[in-house]
Amino acid sequence: MEISAARAGGDREEGTAPDTNNGSASADWRRGRSRRAQEPKTRLAMEGRLGSFLFSLGAVLVVLAGICEGSKVNHCLAARATDCTSCVQAGKDCAYCIDEDFEYPRCDLQSNLKSYQCMNSVQISSEYSIIKEESINTQLVKTQVSPQQMKMRLRVGEERIFQMKVFEPLETPVDLYILMDFSNSMSDDLENLKKMGDSLGELVGTLSRDYTIGFGKFVDKVTVPQTDMRPSKLKQPWPDSDPPFSFKNVIRLTSDSNTFRRELDKERISGNLDAPEGGFDAILQTAVCKDQIGWRDQSTHLLVFSTESAFHYEGDGVNVLAGILKRNDEACHLNAAGSYTHDILQDYPSVPTLVRLLQENNIIPIFAVTNHSYSYYEKLSHYFPVSDIGELQEDSSNILDLLKKAFTNIRSKISMRAENIPKAFKAEVLSQSGQKTEAGTFKLTPGAVESFTVKLQAQEKVGDKHVCSLPAEDQSGNVRIKPTTFTDALNVDVGVLCTRCPCEQNRVTNARKCNGHGDLVCGQCQCSEGWIGPFCNCSARTVGDDAACRMPNTTSVCTDRGECICGICQCHSSGNPLERYEGKYCEFNSLQCQRFAGFLCNARGRCYMGQCACEDGWAGDACECPTSNATCIDSKGGICNGRGICECGRCKCDDSKGQYNGATCEATFMGLLGVCEDTRACVQCQAWQTGEKNGEACKECGFQIQMVDELKKAEEVNERCSFRDEHDDCTYHYTVDGTSENKDIMVRKKKDCPPAGFLWLIPLIMFLMLLLGLLLLCCWKYCACCKACLAMLPCCARGRMVGFKEDQYMLRQSHLTSDYLDTPMVRTGPLKGADIVKWKINDNVHRQGAVYNQATTTNPKDIIPYGVSLRLARLFMENLSRLDSRETDQLRHEVEENLNEVYKQIPGAQRVQRTKFRLQSNAGKRQDHAIVDTVLSAPRSAQPDIVKLTEKQVQLGRFNDLKVVPGYYTVASDKDAQGLVEFQEGVENVDVRVPLFIKDEDDDKKQLRVEALEVPQGIAEIGRRFVNITVIKEHAKSILSFLQPSYTYSRQEKVATIPVVREIIEDGRTMVTYRTRDLTAKDKKDYKSTEGELTFLPGENQKNVKVDLLELSESDALLTDKQIKQFVMDLTNPRYAAKLGKYPRTTVTITDTPEPAVAMFKKGSQTFSTRDQLYTIPVVRTRNPEGPATLHWRTRNASRFELSSPLKFGPGDTEKNIVIDPNVHPGPIKPETFQVELFDPSPNLVIGERKNTVVSIMPPDMLESQAILQNQSVSPRSPSGRLSAPLNVNAQATSAKNIRMTWAPPPGKPNGYKVRYWIQGDPDSEQQVECKSPAVDLNNLYPYCDYEMRVCGYNSMGEGHYSDVVHCRTLEDVPSEPGRLAFNVMSSTVTQLSWAEPAETNGDITAYEVTYTPIDEDNKPNGPTKTVRIDNPKKRMILIENLMESQPYRYTVRARNGAGWGPEREATINLATQPKRPLSIPIIPDIPIVDAEGGEGYDSFLMYSNDVLRSPTGSQRPSVSDEDQLMNGKWDQSFLYSGGGSLTRTTHTKHIQQLSPSMHTETHMIGGRGGDHRDQGVCRHVPAWPRAQITTWGPRHPHQTGLLCSGSHLAEGQLAGAPL
User: Fold this and answer.
1) 311 within 8 A of 280, measured Cβ to Cβ
2) Which end of the chain has a smaller Cβ tally under 10 Å, C or N?
């Protein structure tokens, strides 16, 4: 720390403000006026002290003060430090002036203080010194780092960057320890190893002249069930074998190869029972027993682990059978003979434990395993910073080659780590170019000195705490920076400078300068109680003149925001804790600075004296502009692609045509869309002379096909298409390659035709179906008449009247909140008895009947949706209003199953869908009954049959097995509706819910008429029979909506960008209000709420709203419940003839981890000429392109070269090019086809669907001969007078359930349009809608489903020609919650958690996320939440180890697809209260293993153990001790215990049930829809699952198991214990 005394470079003019280039004075400077009124002013250069002059001078100073206050502020001023220590701790450049007569802000930048002529200031200077730096000597045969020791003392927020050099010699000392599986299946491997003893020593000698070699062996724990404990087998499990053992250090590391060979020849094989071995025990002892094994310092430690079996691990279930429950203590337990002594006393170690211990002891594992267990160890090797794996032959004959290759791989890479980092610091190791790499691993060249860049930064805050308030051990420490395999390290003694100013120790009490009323501290008076003022010369009780507290030309004192005491404003506090008043006259408040995107100072600075003090790297009045151009760099490294300028961190493009309007003024990429449909007609006419273009129109096709015998594979071409030829009902196949302008189409010569022998069955089946339908109709009619006759029997006296309450309703469409109207109907007279009234509503009754019918001629075969409403014989529950609840799902399944069973009798009827439940409020005595609304798609001609069938089943009181209440139903088509309504005894009025048929093509003023037709049951007569409903339609000029109903953003993205789009009908100015509100995410904790106005100027169709996302504090990360964090943004108050569209509300989900970017080839194929000098192949990156990323590419099947190289994306890069120069390779350039493949992406990157691209090299003449696709000509009107097909038909998905379809009107004047759409591959699902305008929204579609659609116009002549079929896939929607959770309890600290796939995947599941949190009795978190991400959607099981004993945990699981994360499935369980698992060895599938005590470095630590307890398939020798336990070729362990286990695999559902410590014996039926299962390009609606009965056992059952279910069904692949 230094106290600098700097004198100003010249005298200032009297009364002139100081230079404020780098900062400005605050209100303290202006207080000098009152200070001069109290003391002599020696600094004034003029004579005389006239009061009038002082008054004039004061006025001048007031004006100058206002000028200074408008100047730019800085972070030192904004810190508002009141003392020296808090000032120098506010930032790295802040200093404090200790001059007694200093008139300006004391805490400011050092440069500003000097410009204000501060003579003495306090500023902390950081310390940086290299204590030990010995140059790297490349002649020494040892690893080295330089420098070796440093010391740093950094100011708060300061970052220090320095270089570190690392050297690994060409040859280093090597310690090679071979750890070999000695089970019987490895006997041939041992014999080969003995033969290669000399060769093994020679190989190690070639790796290093200074080497040692050792040997150890392992089998498994000597206890049941791992080992056969019969005395004869304990003595000799196999002929000529040693007794079983766990681990033994046979040969200590030695440089004597003869001793090694001699001791190895003495070894004999041993044996055990189960297939997995106890290798983890052996690895741990090898790592921690340093002296017994013989590891040397300054040498490379290699551990070769050889086996052909999988491994046991902590808590895998086997040790419980032997009563081994104690955790591994991670200590050395080898006796004098080298044998492991604690094998039966403690459990196996966990995977995270092995990783940590091997890293601490600088040991590199090499897994030499056979193909039977290769996949297990391949996954295991990924979790070690440096490791290698090789595949052994069955007899280990290739072990020498494997070791040589592994050693070469290990020497070529290095892992850099910073250890023991205090909380106040951040450390980062980069390559010399400043790049971060995967897991801190860098490429290394042995023998060369490599340089690395190290960044150490002292943070300002850790969570919500200032670093200087942290404990001393968190402020400083000794950071070790080293390669993980080196013993040498750079030791950096780091600390944060949090010392106090020395002047604060020299306090002058009751100083004369302070008039004896205060202490003088660091040049400033600290007044005693009751005294104020800069020199403590004014009593707080004194009532003085308040003129000095008034702003010029104003009468208010302190701007009415404070109190004037001794001529100085003492500002009041605001009611808002975030707001404070400040300034000489309290004229400023801390919230009045400029805002950007609704955030004060853009959340990038502090508000001080009405101005924003921006953080480093940000500028602008609202801190809205980054000072760098990093956000404007395009994919080629330029600024704004040379087509714009970078202003305020954003590219301002000068492209008027809109072609280059990307974020960096680059053209946006769109893939080939609908290529199969575009080429279908031309391919069909050219190949088979059939189809709609057969004849002259075929000559207009812009390409020529090629007939081939076999097609290329799908991954080798852009598209592979298949269509049915209507001429012969055969299917033809072809491929499309090349670009949109130059298509290369190959057609397979042979079609796929159905067998001709079965065609005669088609008319027979149709006749039988028609006959059956007629018989059923007759039966229905007869039964309906009987019921009607019975219903006519009188039961009460006559004299009642029923009718509508009103005869007219006037509605405005813009005010409607639903598409129905509850129309009251009343009953008068005696109310004894019940009456049922039949009603009907007709749409558009205002139109002339004849004209209307003629203009809207409809096809009776058209599929239309029918709305069906029924009253169920069950009460409504609150959970039925939630679409995703368990009760709703069960009842929906029951309703749909029974309705489908009934309505399947209607010809052409499809399955019901969109089933919902509600209450009918004014429904008499049955208003508590549940009403079900569903949609039945059927032909238009089937309406009478649907009504009759519905009425009949309602009278019967049941639909199949579904009970309904008679007297109520509604059946609605697209034009009319009818139904029944019931008046129970004593009921005067009920509501009739009538649909309003709101459609886009409605007239501006349309009328509907509701008619009471008859009273089929009861004695009432109809009074007011009709009610007319008029709907007035208002036209909007603009439609405003969010682009999507939901978004997902990561906290690391810091900003959520929400697009608001406008559909322009009539261009003009439009405004709308937006506002956020909390759901589970909380304002100022998870995000910063925002609200404001969006103004769309003419021509603008999209605006973005930015919402600041906040990082989790440390306390929140530990204590906050890890539920889904969501908030909502609403659009309201549209103005200037605008209305809200489909999505007036959107939900934003905040995740804690960023989504990886996606990289893929821009095109699936590339075509070049043999004359091209370069082959340029673009690769694009989408989603989260902010950070750097790396992947590799390589060529395959090229004739002249095999290339491979990395491809690096810089921050913000969205496109990079692979460039191949064909001229630098030998041989002539010839036509050929080869592939380029992407592989090995960095952790923040995944490879997309176009992983490969096909590169075709063609002669120039062939390229020139390819025809260009011509526009198809459309005849304006067909000869018959029918309308031609609409033009330019386009379909685009707008959401997961909506598709927007547009087209150009055909020539002529169509009265309207008909759109038919169906699920691709399922023509029976066809539906039809009608509209008046050339655009329609198809709603209520299935998410992530391929649809086909076409449109035609109609007029008085009828329907026109239909357009070509267009294709469109709806967007993905978030999946539903995963299926029920199940727990397989291993012990009180280990459990296996499994779950089922979400019932509604709504896309491709890409990942699962599991969290587990310790909770207290109030179900509140009392410890950190651990989060595990599982990126393989097939892994739906996880093993969690090292849980706290007797601690309840809350577990959650959620799924993710392309649309984001779905809702969580939650369960709570205390393992200690659950029954123990069955006495059987569980077969654990491919699951992740997580260590709950792994700490921060091991959070989300995954390790897969695929079938680790199964015998290796194909192994030449079994691992069991003899064949006594083999029955029918399978291993039988029944001699170990009574009972056994079973593996149960069932279907999955989405039901959940609260866990309880004790469970009953329950029997459940599995059923349900189970979601939509899709193949590529096809949506298949799967019918109900077959029923299956499952019984779960709990403590009340005599046969207890360790299986606990949070729902009523078992997950797919989940274990179920069998009764013992």
Assistant:
1) yes
2) N
**Backbone dihedral angles phi then psi of residue 1499, each to the nearest 5 degrees:** -65, 140
Nearest alpha-carbon partner for 1324 in 721, 907, 866, 754: 907
Per-run averaged pLDDT (10 residues), the chain, 1620 residues: 40 35 35 37 36 38 38 73 85 85 84 84 86 86 86 87 85 86 77 72 75 89 77 77 88 86 82 75 93 87 86 69 74 92 87 86 87 81 82 73 76 75 86 52 75 86 81 88 78 89 85 86 86 80 74 84 80 73 84 80 82 82 83 75 83 65 62 69 90 87 90 78 84 80 85 69 82 76 51 51 88 72 88 89 68 53 90 85 81 91 89 88 80 91 92 89 91 91 89 83 81 90 90 78 84 87 83 88 88 89 91 63 80 80 87 80 86 90 80 90 90 87 86 90 85 86 50 39 82 88 86 91 84 89 90 87 89 88 81 87 90 88 87 84 85 90 89 55 45 45 37 37 33 32 30 32 32 40 32 32 33 32
Local structure of 986: helix, strand or coil: coil
Provide CB contacts within 8 A for 1050, sequence distance 6+: 1109, 1150, 1151, 1152, 1153, 1154, 1155, 1184
Residue 1610 C-alpha from the chain's centroid: 27
Read off the DSSP letter of residue 373: T
How far apart (Å, rounded) are the C-alpha atoms in residues 368 and 374?
Answer: 9
- Which of 667, 700, 660 is closest to 682 using CA atoms? 700
From 304, 340, 336, select the one nearest 213 (Cα to Cα). 304
The CA distance from 1189 to 1181, in Å, is: 9
Spatial contact of 920 and 993, defined as CB atoms under 8 Å apart = yes
Half-sphere exposure of 397 (CA within 13 A, CB side): 4
CA atoms within 13 A on the CB side of 924: 22
Rounded CA gap, 75 and 606, in Å?
Answer: 7
Beta bridge partners of 1255: 1166, 1234
Cα–Cα dist 1094/738, whole Å: 44
Angle between helices 187-195 and 197-207 (to 10 degrees): 70
Can you tell me whether residue 1373 is helix, strand or coil?
A: coil
Residues in the chain, overall count: 1620
Q: Please report which helix (H) or strand (E) contains residue 412, including its range.
A: none
Report phi then psi at 1381, rounded to 5: -95, 145
* The overall pTM is greater than 0.85: no
Q: What gap in Å lies between CA 298 and CA 288, rounded to an integer?
A: 17
Tokens of 439: 């897991």
- Pick the closest to residue 1379 from 884, 880, 883 (CA basis): 884
In DSSP terms, 1408 is beta-bridged to: 1430, 1455
Give me 395's structure tokens.
Answer: 């007899």
State CA 1445 to chain mean position distance: 33
Count of alpha carbons within 13 Å of 1223, Cβ hemisphere only? 5
Q: Identify residue 709 by its one-letter amino acid code.
A: D
842 — phi, psi (to 5°)? -115, 140
Tell which residue, 794, 807, 802, 804, has the closest CA to residue 828.
Answer: 802
DSSP string for 920-982: -SS-GGGTTEEEEEEEEEEEGGGHHHHHHHHHHHHHHTEETTEEEEEEEEEEE-SSEEEEEEE
Q: d(Cα 763, Cα 769) in Å, to the nearest integer? A: 10
Residue type (1 letter), 962: L
Tokens of 591: 């919230």
Cβ proximity of 1052 and 1079 under 8 Å: no
Please report how the helices 399-411 and 197-207 are oriented relative to each other, as an axis angle in degrees rounded to 10: 20
Q: Which amino acid makes up residue 767?
A: F
The string of DSSP codes covering 668-717 is PP----SHHHHHHHHHHHHHHS-STTTTGGGGG-S--EEEESSPPPGGGS
Q: Which SS3 state, helix, strand or coil, does residue 155 take?
A: coil
User: Vertex 324, ends 318 and 329: CA angle to 5°?
Assistant: 115
Question: What is the C-alpha R_g of the chain?
Answer: 41
